[in-house]
Amino acid sequence: MKLKPLLHSPYKFIFQFYLMYDIAYFKANEQQELLDFMQANPFVTICGVDRNGLPIAAQIPILIKQVQDKLIISGHLMRKQDHTNAFELNPNTLVIFSAPSAFVSASWYTNKGQASTWNYQTVHAIGKMKMQDEAHLYQLLTDLTMHFEKEADAPSQVKNLDPMYMQQNMKAIVSFDIEVTELKHVFKLSQNRDETSHQNIQNELSKGDAGCKYMAAAMKR
Questions:
Q1: How far apart are CA 215 and CA 188, in angstroms?
Q2: In 3D, which of 64, 50, 15 has the Cα closest to residue 183?
Q3: What is the percent of the chain with per-residue pLDDT over 70, rounded to a whole number?
Q4: Which label site among 19, 152, 177, 192 has the fewest CB atoms less than 10 Å from its CB?
Q5: Is residue 2's pLDDT more than 50?
Q6: Residue whose C-alpha is closest to residue 47's, from 6, 1, 11
């Protein structure tokens, strides 16, 4: 996936995004698989460009919701940061969802005379960021905490925090919604390998670290 420059730069810097291996057999069968993957991997990288056309990025937790036929990504940013200033000037946003990945050795193929590779899954959500008001921020913080904290009566739930504490800290952040206009993805899980190689890769990855085990399970699914 490649985006044209979002801003013209005096330094002729071209801001481009690529999805490696963006080909048919590295795709999910159903869009619901993309949504499930996004929900399962909510700590994302958001990317944009600043006033000079230079790339900026931030890593944040987000929430996803579907409103009628729209897919909305919501989160918050610290005010007066380079990335926040950039998005206020230019709302075009790329949100990258990713999961653990794994090196795949060609020694695991039935035909070993090939290059090794890397298996991974990623979803790129493209849309426009819109900064929101204080009421939206409060609700977002409530929803974020409830979603990730799980325990409804935890002391850290927004409803249990000192209102003055909330008011002071909310001054430093701003919430946003991104209406997604396009989804791109690659689920590169050795779908282009023969059945024996595919099984060999699963077996070898299942012996590795947590990221390798994750990838082995993803391939099995």
A1: 10
A2: 64
A3: 91
A4: 152
A5: no
A6: 6
Longest pairwise C-alpha distance within the chain:
65
pTM of the model: 0.86
Neighbours of 98 (CB within 10 A): 15
What residue type is 154 in one-letter code? A
Asked if residue 198 lies in contact with residue 208, where contact means CB atoms within 8 angstroms, the answer is no
Task: State whether the Cα torsion 14-16-20-24 is positive or negative.
Answer: negative
- Predicted confidence (pLDDT) per residue in 156-201, tens digit: 999 999 999 999 999 999 999 999 999 999 999 999 999 999 999 9
Token pair of 198 as six digits: 């595919």
Q: Dihedral of the CA atoms 123, 37, 58, 213 (nearest 10)?
A: -100
Classified as helix, coil or strand, 200 is helix
* Measured distance CA(132)–CA(177) in Å, rounded: 7
Is 53:9 a contact under the CB 8 Å cutoff? Answer: yes
**Whole-angstrom Cα distance, residue 137 to residue 135?**
5
Q: Which two tokens stand for residue 22?
A: 């963006």
DSSP letter for each residue of 93-138 = EEEEEE---EEE-GGGSSS-SS--EEEEEEEEEEEEEEE--HHHHH
* H/E segment holding residue 142: helix 134-149
Beta-bridged to residue 76, according to DSSP, are 175
